[in-house]
Amino acid sequence: MTPWWKKAVVYQIYPKSFQDSNGDGIGDLQGIISRLDYLAKLGIDAIWLSPVYQSPGVDNGYDISDYRAINPQFGTMADMDELIKEAAKRKIKIVMDLVVNHTSDQHEWFVEARKSQDNPYRDYYIWRDQPNDLKSAFSGSAWKYDEASGQYYLHLFAPQQPDLNWTNPHVRQEVYDMMNYWIDKGIGGFRMDVIELIGKDPDKEITANGPMLHPYLQEMNRATFGDKDLMTVGETWGATPKIAEEYSDPARHELSMVFQFENQSLDQQPGKSKWDLKPLDLGELKQVLIKWQTEIDFDHAWNSLFWENHDIPRVISRWGNDTKYRVASAKMFAIALHLMHGTPYIFNGEELGMTNYPVKSIAELNDVESINMYHERLAQGDKAEDLIHAINVKGRDNARRPMQWNNTPNAGFTEGKPWLAVNPNYHEINAEAALADPDSIFYTYQKLIKLRHENPIVVDGDFEEVPASDQVLAYYRILGDEKWLVVANMGESEAAFTMPDDLGQMLIQNYEAAPQKAGRVVLRPYEAFAGIVL
Ligand code: TEU
Ligand code: CA
């Protein structure tokens, strides 16, 4: 039997930015509950909820100080239970973010651990007398000296996010107990934050894909979700197709699927960081998309399909066009991706074609990654304007702007002062306007979700590339006698394309009168369509 998550479309909510219900300028659980009907209308099956646990908020909740409590800024545990229940009424599952590579430095385990070298919790974290060259993802060394107890601890992210010591069996058992606490509440599964790091060997400077990663995941599977009908998705920046099979071959009893980012490096200079920009080559993007359709065997692995999340910019601003062709390019990205093999994810606001929001100065930013990088590189002699430019192109706050619900002040997100400024284009781009316009991006997403739910070919069909120029992604999905053709001009210029077949019924398109006959055609800017091959 096909598991539910192979047929599902997942919607990611960044709670702080989704909907405020009490005027404090911060999105919250009651806000999400009030928007469940909107999500049901879109048609999604599950919500990936970015962290709502107790947290000091250094990394917006990815620094957890109590895994079994809700951050009061988001509500209470009763609100959380209500969300799970109200979502279930609409056949929507709640997938929790599981952040267990590290905790907050305010977590009671770390508060204890740093008290002395012989504290019983000391070994819950990773302490050394001397640091090595490991770097933090958020700039600087990954080791911080703790004056009071006289050793360095490891933090692959902010210093306020100390890494847990997964070699300690007590740590692993604590995590599994906590996961079972959430499973018992009736959640739909877990999205596992930087899970590829848990098997690390810091002394050898091995972080991702370390030797103990898969043994730990197999142990976790046995101790928690293994015999349950849950979805588990691993955030796996460094996965290759082969590594994807190691995580998600059902016979290995690890996770349901990977969430990999190979396309993220395409617009950065080779060997450098995400901030060292380089223009995207559409041919390379196309090759990466095709690679992840053809180089994994979907009977022995499963992959996620996504353009956006809370760590990456809005796709139309980055690789499409967020002005003249905003609607066409947003629909093109949706059509190109959602008819592929895998489980699609929509990041809140993507279905409205929300755009990046450029800032003029560092004072307008919230994200720890951008702020630390700015100060580090400024000190190294980089120019402020270049750094701000890179942040506007790639920074994480772009996608974290409040949801644009309507045309009232602050886009209907809050009646107070939003924690992060709303993009002023909300007057034009908002959910209310989208729902009133039958041609909106919202309805393209709604239709794509419906196509997936109603047609096994979208879930299970084989993928076959159709020859086309670099900027045109064209493919068949094939199941039994049925064959669909999907064509997407990913570029802003017209593109010649040879239609390989006559199409019968058209399934979806972003321009009137899409090509339907075999032979040479000229695709319009960002034109995309799918139809049934006769
Ligand atoms: O992201 C992991 C991660 O590697 C990113 O921080 C990445 O380095 C950066 O976003 C690239 O721009 C996860 C979460 O999704 C992220 O929000 C957290 O900050 C991070 O883990 C730490 O928990
Ligand atoms: Ca609030």
UniProtKB/TrEMBL annotation:
Membership in a protein family: Belongs to the glycosyl hydrolase 13 family.
SMART domains, A to Z: Aamy
Biological process according to GO: oligosaccharide catabolic process
Does the keyword field hold Ribosomal protein?
A: no
Query: In what residue span(s) does the Glycosyl hydrolase family 13 catalytic domain sit?
Result: 12-400
| Protein name in the entry | Oligo-1,6-glucosidase
Q: Which organism is it from?
A: Lactobacillus corticis
InterPro entries the record matches: GH (IPR017853), GH13_cat_dom (IPR006047), Glyco_hydro_b (IPR013780), O16G_dom_2 (IPR045857), SusG-like_C (IPR056300)
Any GO molecular function: alpha-amylase activity
* Any Pfam family the entry gives: Alpha-amylase
Kindly indicate whether the keyword Hydrolase belongs to this entry. yes
Tell me where on the tree of life, at the top rank, the source sits: Bacteria
- Which Gene3D superfamilies does the UniProt entry name for this protein? Glycosidases (3.20.20.80), Golgi alpha-mannosidase II (2.60.40.1180), Oligo-1,6-glucosidase, Domain 2 (3.90.400.10)
Q: Which UniProt keywords apply?
A: Glycosidase, Hydrolase
